Amino acid sequence: MFRKFVKALIPQPIFDRIEPFGHLCEAILANLVYGFPAKKLKVIGVTGTDGKTTTSTLIQRLLQEAGYRTALMSTITFDDGSGPVPNPTRLTTIGAMDMFKKLRKIAAAKPDFLVLETTSHALAQHRVWGVPYHLAVMTNVTHEHLDYHRTFENYRNAKLSLFKLANANSRGLRVGVINADDPSAQLFADAIAIPLLYGLSAGNLLAYNIKTATNGSSFLASYGDRSFNITVNLPGGFNVSNALAAIGAGIALGLSDRQIEAGIAGLKSVEGRMNTIMAGQDFNVIVDYAHTPESFEKIFNEVRAITKGRMICVFGSAGRRDDTKRGLQGQVAGRLSDLVIVTEEDDRDEDGQAILTEIGDGAIMKGKQLNKDLFLIHDRTAAIKFAIDNAAPGDTVLLLGKGHEQSILSADGKHPWDEAATARRALGERIRR
To answer: Whole-structure pTM over 0.85, yes or no?
Structure first.
């Protein structure tokens, strides 16, 4: 509330300059109040535009399968070692005071490792001041959050600071696990003493003989004279890259080949990530959190390969967030999906219909026609019902952007939401007719 009051009084450019200082003060105070709890932990930081949550969860599973006691703080889960509970905050890296309070509880449980999903916002705002990162992991850096960072370079540099923090921790490994297929890979490698680069086409940890199926993938991986026979029980070929990031973390942490293989195979699903909804229908329904143009490219291409009929997508774009991506999302969907249904995501206090129009204009640029193969349906429940009612045998319905989230944010506040449950109700209504 105080932050909103101050923001209303101060011009935006000035507020943007002083906001990180306020967060830094809060982080310093939080450390003093809670006794610098992160100093007692070995923290594995995972950053990137896409794949952070899946990679973080894979790393936790790797360590658990190897017999280590682990904690996890991610977009969807808080786990102090006693079991996961949902993250209700809608924040990947929560505010400093709340975070260090949780870190004190985690430290008291004495886990061997904490996997901390770390966002560009948290890094730019110094919310993680006082966290000595033991190991840093980068999944990728693509178009996102330019509403806050203003430029891609600022966004990338915020993520890069995780590696600088890890490199400055003399008691850590000073190892960075980096996606070598990403254009920014060398910048991240230059920021850390020991870069471990993984990739599909470059790096010293490589995947080959990749075989994908509807329920996951398998591949061989090599690192020096070590080789791994990997089974990934997560749909989507992009999870090969996420698995490689986790394997790189396992190598850096000294896990054996067998421990790494068992750990990757041990994770069966991640909530809101490529979750298939089945109710006896003769077409596919998939719920996924994808919400950037680049993640759209990946998921549309992946799903196209397993779809006999049409691709039908339902998605929106958040209000008061990066508006430059809306038209790009529409263009990707217009190019790669047969039927595009644009709906609300989190309008906040923006005009929801205007957001839909911005996205729709992108789809029209790629040949879609309004009310023929492009529909703007603001109510998300109605949009999902429309998609499912219009699906034919062999089609795939992709429900994107909400994933695990349990609310929709509108001008009048937070409304309960469950994407998977909404899809199941729509399927049940169709089957009963």
So the answer is: no
Q: Between helices 52-65 and 257-266, what is the axis angle to 10°? A: 130
Which of 16-30, 122-136, 330-344 is most confident? 330-344
Residue 412: C-alpha distances to residues 350, 355, 397, 405, 408 (Å): 11, 17, 30, 18, 11
Positive or negative torsion for Cα 128, 317, 394, 391: positive
Residue 341: Cβ-neighbour burial (10 angstroms; 0-12, 13-18, 19+)? buried
pLDDT digits (tens, 9 = 90+) for 239-268: 999 999 999 999 999 999 999 999 999 998
At what angle are helices 326-336 and 293-304 packed, to 10 degrees? 10
Mean pLDDT of the chain: 88
Contacts of 20 (CB under 8 A, 6+ apart): 124, 125, 126
Contact 174, 194 (CB under 8 A): yes
Instruction: Give the pLDDT confidence of 369-396 residue by residue, as tens digits.
Output: 999 999 999 999 999 999 999 999 999 9
Q: 206 by DSSP, 3-state: which?
A: strand
Return d(Cα 284, Cα 276) in angstroms, integer. Answer: 7
> β-strands 43-47, 205-213: how paired?
unpaired
The Cα–Cα gap between 401 and 397 comes to 13
In the chain, the domains with their CATH numbers are 2-266 (3.40.1190.10), 275-432 (3.90.190.20)
For tokens 């999944």, what's the residue? Answer: 139
DSSP string, 333-370: HHHH-SEEEE--S--BTS-HHHHHHHHHHHHHHTT--B
70-73 and 43-47 beta bridge pairing: unpaired
Q: How many helices (H) and strands (E) does the chain have?
A: 15, 19
Mean per-residue pLDDT, 120-139: 90
The predicted-structure confidence for 168-198, as pLDDT tens digits, reads as follows: 999 999 999 999 999 999 999 999 999 999 9
Amino acid identity of residue 215, one-letter, is N
**Radius of gyration from C-alpha coordinates of the chain:** 21
The answer to whether the CB of 329 falls within 8 A of the CB of 293 is: yes
